[in-house]
Design brief:
This protein is of the alpha/beta class and 482 residues long. The protein is 23% helix and 30% strand. The chain folds into two domains: 5-232, Spore Coat Polysaccharide Biosynthesis Protein SpsA, Chain A (Alpha-Beta Complex), CATH 3.90.550; 261-445, Hexapeptide repeat proteins (UDP N-Acetylglucosamine Acyltransferase, domain 1, 3 Solenoid), CATH 2.160.10. It is elongated. The structure holds uridine-diphosphate-N-acetylglucosamine and calcium ion.
Length: 482
């Protein structure tokens, strides 16, 4: 692009059809707000400045935009008097800074998350090359209802955009619509905006009336038809939100497959926009990879797994797992049916097995918690094996306490570690141990007393029950065979 580019993103409208406490443009699609997607596309085009027009719930929308694009200029539109009014306020925000927009001004909406940077770039470049006062990114729709129609004259030149409510029967039959994305010569726009009037069906200042003004002044106007109209589709309600989400997901999943990821069932695989997958990752059916999750090469995820903000090492295997803010080492194995809570880290070749819940737990290389356990607020050293059914009792009813298990320890089945407690390197515990005191390195902890068998107990205390009968039959057999 040759000249200076200013992009104005309109995000002041209320979005009432969403019927939501949350402002429309803040609703997420693929883990990112709708306006976040638009801003990402806009930033890729590298404009001189980005101006966002905010109004409804601007106390939420403004800070969100600033967090994503710290140097975006926020223009406040207190009352929404139309797209022309919104753009005027954006231009005023620029001039208030002592600057004058030059070159091209591009207008986009904050509720079109599928818009791609490449489309914007091509549109702006074509606008500049044709030296137009106004360019319209238009589209052809089977059902153009609700959109502004592109009116062309006998030579096919664009004469005007007429809004649905102001259109004649004949004009409503036109299928070429204004997507809402417009490009302007900055000088023309600055001059035209104060001349817009609101004597129309909606009583609004239509940005689209600039087309007519340009034609009156004998300036060039043109429309560039976009093939993929979905890109400019605004989300107005939750039905469109879901449909847009599906299209976005399809795009993301397709891109990862092209990058060398095997996705067995794209229809049941959901990947957020900011997830990173490396080559030869395999994703099995029913997987959600969310937030900023990163999966390294050769890892196999799924089936039926949700990972949010997790890091999965190369060659790791994660089966039927729900995880959040967990880091899984190279070659490690997780699940089936594991619940990884924030602060879980598992070393190289480690294992968090079946029906295991972990939280704020650092497990070393080769450490294993294979079955039916809760590991909370704990450190488990490398090569240590935690017996089946072990509970790290981290909560004394008042405070959370930490358990430290050293390296190459072997703890028995069905243990309880009452925190705070430390089990030394190379130590062991017997089955059923309740560890309340520290275990020195190399020691074996045994907490239960010697086993006592009360002979023939079932026969006297449970007489007449199947239990007693079974015991009697067995004892009979034993006595006979004696
Ligand atoms: C607008 C276009 C129409 C086009 C359609 C595409 C105008 C007059 N009409 O119509 O030609 O086919 O978009 O979707 O431009 N906004 C503000 N401040 C305002 C008014 C709107 O920020 O005062 C924002 C809204 O939040 C929204 C966008 O501008 O993101 C479009 O506004 P909306 O009222 O939805 O315009 P449409 O009537 O759909
Ligand atoms: Ca709209």
């Amino acid at each position: 692009m040759s000249g200076e580019l200013t992009v104005i993103v309109l995000a002041a409208g209320g979005g009432t059809r969403m019927r939501s406490k949350t402002m429309k443009v803040l609703h997420p699609v693929a883990g990112r707000s709708m306006v976040g997607h638009v801003l990402a596309a806009v930033q890729e085009v590298q404009p001189r400045r980005i101006v966002a027009v905010v109004g409804h719930q601007r106390d939420q929308v403004g800070p969100h935009i600033h967090e994503l694009v710290p140097d975006a200029l926020l223009a406040v539109q207190e009352e929404q008097h139309g797209t022309g009014h919104a753009v005027r306020i954006a231009i005023e925000a620029v001039t208030a800074q002592g600057e004058t927009p030059e070159g091209t001004v591009l207008v986009a909406y904050g509720d079109t998350p599928l818009l791609e940077a490449e489309s914007l770039r091509r549109f702006a470049a074509e606008h500049e090359a044709a030296q137009r006062a106004v360019s319209i990114l238009s589209g052809r729709l089977d059902d153009p209802h609700g959109y502004g129609r592109v009116i062309r004259n006998g030579e096919g030149e664009v004469e005007a955009i007429v809004e649905e409510k102001d259109a004649t029967e004949e004009q409503r039959a036109i299928h070429e619509i204004n997507s809402g994305i417009l490009a302007f010569d900055a000088t023309f726009l600055v001059d035209a905006l104060p001349r817009l009037r609101n004597d129309n069906a909606k009583g609004e200042y239509y940005l689209t009336d600039t087309v007519h003004l340009a034609r009156e002044a004998g300036l060039h106007v043109g429309a560039h038809e976009i093939d993929d109209v979905l890109q400019t589709e605004g989300v107005n309600d939750r039905v469109q939100l879901a449909r847009t989400g599906r299209v976005m997901n399809d795009r993301i999943v397709t891109r990862w497959m092209q990058e060398g990821v095997t996705v067995m069932d794209p229809a049941t695989t959901w990947i957020d926009a900011d997830v990173v997958l490396r080559a030869d990752v395999t994703v099995l059916p029913g997987v959600q990879l969310l937030g900023t999750t990163v999966v390294d090469e050769d890892a196999v995820i799924g089936p039926d797994t949700t990972l949010k903000d997790c890091e999965i090492g190369a060659g790791a295997r994660v089966i039927r797992t729900h995880g959040e803010l967990a880091v899984i080492g190279t070659g490690a194995s997780v699940g089936p049916f594991a619940y990884l809570r924030p602060g879980t880290t598992l070393g190289t070749d480690g294992k968090i097995g079946t029906f295991v819940e972990t939280k704020n737990a650092q497990l070393g290389d080769g450490a294993k918690v294979p079955h039916l356990s809760y590991v909370g607020d704990a450190e488990v050293g490398e090569g240590t094996n935690i017996g089946a059914g072990t509970i790290f009792a981290n909560y004394d009813g008042v405070e959370k306490n930490r358990t430290v298990v050293g390296r190459h320890a072997k703890t028995g089945a069905n243990n309880t570690f009452v925190a705070p407690v430390t089990i030394g390197d190379g130590a062991g515990t017997a089955g059923g141990t309740v560890v309340r005191r520290n275990v020195p390195p190399g020691a074996l902890a045994v907490s239960g007393g010697p086993q006592r068998n009360l002979e023939r107990w079932a026969l006297s205390k449970r007489a007449g029950t199947p239990q007693a009968d079974a015991a009697a039959a067995a004892l009979d057999g034993v006595e006979q065979s004696d």
